[in-house]
Every structure is written in C-alpha cells, then in structure tokens.
C-alpha cells in the first residue's frame, strides 16, 4: 500500500519504520527534515512538502496536538487540498473531540475518508510494533486498512463508526494513566518518607494487587526518578487533561479527578517540569513533602 506519513517524533518514527518493515511503500514528511534520514536509509521517500506526501492511498498523521494537526490538514497545500478523492486520512494523534468532528466533516466535503486511530503505548512500544490501536470510522475503510494497523500494533480495537469516539476513548485512557501516576506518586511519597525503598514498595504492589502495565511502567520510572529523556512530555499530559475536561463539559459529565490532575500538571510545569516525562507528575507529591524537585 502507498502510505504517506507526517510526523516523525518519538512515536511517529517507530511507526513509519514498522510500515516499511511490513513492505509498504512509505513517503515521509516532517517539519524538521533531518528526522527522515534514518527512514530514507531503509527505503522511505522523503517528501519536500505536505502536498507531495499526500500522493498516496493513505496519509497517516502522528503529531503533538490540535494546532499541529490543523496546520498540516487545513493549511495551504495541506492534506485537505492535496489528498485525492477517495483517499484516507488516518489521524493517530491525541486530539480533541471537537477537532475530530471538524476533520470528519471537512474530509467528507472533500470526498475523502477520515479515520481516527489514536494509539496506546510509549515510544518503545511504537518501535516494537506493540501499540494498541483504537479506531473510529466507517467499517469498510477500517477493514481495508487492517494491514496498516497490524504493522503498527499488537491489537486493533474498532470502537465506533464515528471517528470522534476513538479520540474520546484515547483521552479517557490517558486520564486514567495520569490518575495512576498521581496516586502512585502520593503512595510512594508516603512510604518513602517513612524510610521504605520505593522499588521494594513497587515490587510488592505489582506482585499482588496491581500487576498491570501502567503500574509497572510508571511505577518503575517514579522509583528510579527517570524522567529524562521524555517518552511523553509533561506539557502534553497537561494538554490531554484539558482536552478530557473539555469533553466532559461538552457532554455535561463532571470529572473532579481530571480537574485535580490538570492542576497537578500545572504545578509540575510551574516548577520547571514542562519537558520532563509525564511520569514526573507523580514526583510532585514527594517534592511537596520535602524531597527534590522533579528532574533535579
């Protein structure tokens, strides 16, 4: 399949590499051209413009936020202008429900197909093709894209024929992860200040009631105070907390814990933690209890 891929950051570079490994014909575009070098060595075609990378059956975007997705989609020479009729835009970015609605309408008006396919997993999972792909959109195009999703992840979940539901699921999942990070951090601050080794505490937790990836992965980062380099930066965690709250406002669902999570991210960023891994959210409790500032 001819695939254009836009966004070669921590996640996108691994995803594009796996599409190449699966035998797809992949063109890549990134605002910082140097990031394409490793992929072109493996057979990818570096496109000079967004329009050039849209000469494909499918264009996948993996970008940081709504602003970035809007720029490449709606800007001059962007995806809406450049994608051929009948072609598919797959958005794997974690974006707002409102933007997913706008993209769905705009692509339908342009005779394109829009699919939301955000993913769960950190950069190491992206590189190993171990992501979980959450898909929303028309059933026929989703079925035809099975080889793409199989190249990216270990399992695909088709949740709705409405693309925005996939984005809501992704945001809800990220909210739950952030809640785990915060509660783990508070518990570790408590036992740590009493003198217990945090790694020993984590071993106890994950060997009994909490043997789940979120506890093992983020608990390990917290216990080791391993916040750099960031797999997913704290400022993006704050962005997602705000998007969850916006979705709650739209649907009239109170989300008091999400409000707390947003405020805790604000505290982390105000203390200089903007570019730390979002796992540093859990270190705020220890900092407030007299420990070192996250990242120092």
Automatic annotation (TrEMBL):
Pfam families: NAD_binding_11, NAD_binding_2. The keyword Lyase does not apply. Residues 2-157 form the 6-phosphogluconate dehydrogenase NADP-binding domain. It comes from Mycolicibacterium iranicum. PROSITE patterns: 3_HYDROXYISOBUT_DH. This is NAD(P)-dependent oxidoreductase. SUPFAM superfamilies: 6-phosphogluconate dehydrogenase C-terminal domain-like (SSF48179), NAD(P)-binding Rossmann-fold domains (SSF51735). It comes from the Bacteria. Belongs to the HIBADH-related family. Residues 167-281 form the 3-hydroxyisobutyrate dehydrogenase-like NAD-binding domain. Keywords: NAD, Oxidoreductase. The lineage of its organism: Bacteria, Bacillati, Actinomycetota, Actinomycetes, Mycobacteriales.
């Amino acid at each position: 399949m001819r695939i254009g891929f836009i966004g070669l950051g921590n996640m996108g570079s691994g995803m594009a590499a796996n599409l190449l490994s699966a035998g797809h014909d992949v063109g890549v575009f990134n605002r910082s051209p140097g990031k394409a070098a490793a992929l072109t060595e493996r057979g990818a075609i570096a496109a000079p413009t967004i329009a050039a990378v849209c000469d494909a059956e499918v264009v996948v975007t993996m970008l940081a936020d709504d602003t970035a997705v809007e720029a490449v989609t709606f800007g001059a020479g962007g995806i809406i202008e450049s994608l051929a009729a009948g072609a598919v835009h797959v958005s794997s970015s974690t974006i707002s429900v409102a933007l997913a609605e706008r993209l769905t309408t705009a692509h339908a008006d342009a005779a394109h197909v829009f699919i939301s396919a955000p993913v769960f997993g950190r950069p190491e999972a992206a590189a190993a093709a171990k992501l979980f792909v959450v898909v929303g959109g028309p059933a026929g195009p989703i079925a035809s894209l099975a080889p793409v999703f199989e190249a990216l992840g270990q399992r695909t979940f088709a949740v709705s024929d409405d693309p925005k539901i996939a984005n809501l699921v992704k945001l809800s999942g990220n909210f739950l992860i952030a809640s785990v990070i915060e509660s783990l951090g508070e518990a570790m601050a408590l036992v740590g200040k009493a003198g217990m080794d945090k790694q020993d505490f984590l071993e106890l937790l994950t060997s009994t009631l909490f043997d789940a990836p979120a506890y093992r992965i983020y608990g390990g980062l917290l216990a080791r105070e391993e916040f750099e380099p960031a797999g997913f930066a704290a400022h993006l965690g704050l962005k997602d907390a705000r998007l969850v709250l916006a979705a709650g406002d739209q649907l009239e669902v109170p989300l008091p814990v999400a409000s707390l999570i947003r405020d805790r991210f604000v505290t982390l960023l105000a203390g200089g933690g903007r570019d730390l891994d979002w796992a540093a959210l859990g270190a705020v409790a220890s900092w407030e209890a007299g420990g070192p500032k996250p990242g120092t």
